[in-house]
């Protein structure tokens, strides 16, 4: 089974709401308030997660962007990440 990875972006919510999110991520200061990498075992799990987000956030002020390609290399000297999201989402 192939896991689905996605990038979660949240904006326009208070800090108290971000603290209740069920994922670990980074708080941002700018256009977006929060970013996280999330994994799902299947599409149904991702849809259930989105329903939970709407309840916690109180609306649709988030983007859940499925990742098409993902790679991470870490060693003592350097580290890098490659992430590609679908072009139709307007982020490429």
Question: Which key phrases capture this entry?
Answer:
alpha+beta; globular; 22% helix; disordered C terminus; single chain; two-stranded antiparallel ribbon; 6 strands; four-stranded antiparallel sheet; Alpha-Beta Plaits
How would you briefly describe this protein structure?
This is Transcription regulator AsnC/Lrp ligand binding domain-containing protein. By secondary structure, this protein is of the alpha+beta class.
How would you portray this structure in words?
With 92 residues, the chain is of the alpha+beta class. The chain has one domain (4-89): Alpha-Beta Plaits (2-Layer Sandwich). It is built from two helices and six strands; from the N terminus they run βαββαβββ. A four-stranded antiparallel beta sheet has the order 2-3-1-4, with helices on one face. Strands 5-6 form a two-stranded antiparallel ribbon. The longest helix has 15 residues, at 43-57. The protein is globular. The chain starts with a strand and ends in an 8-residue tail after the last strand.
């Amino acid at each position: 089974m192939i896991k689905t990875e996605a990038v979660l972006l949240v904006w326009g919510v208070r800090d108290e709401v971000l603290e209740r999110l069920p994922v670990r991520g980074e708080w941002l200061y700018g256009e977006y308030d929060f970013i996280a990498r999330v994994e799902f075992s299947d599409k149904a799990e991702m849809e259930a997660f989105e329903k939970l987000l709407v309840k916690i956030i109180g609306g649709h002020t988030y983007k859940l962007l499925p990742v098409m390609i993902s790679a991470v290399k870490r060693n003592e000297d350097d580290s890098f990440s490659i992430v590609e999201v679908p072009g139709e989402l307007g982020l490429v």
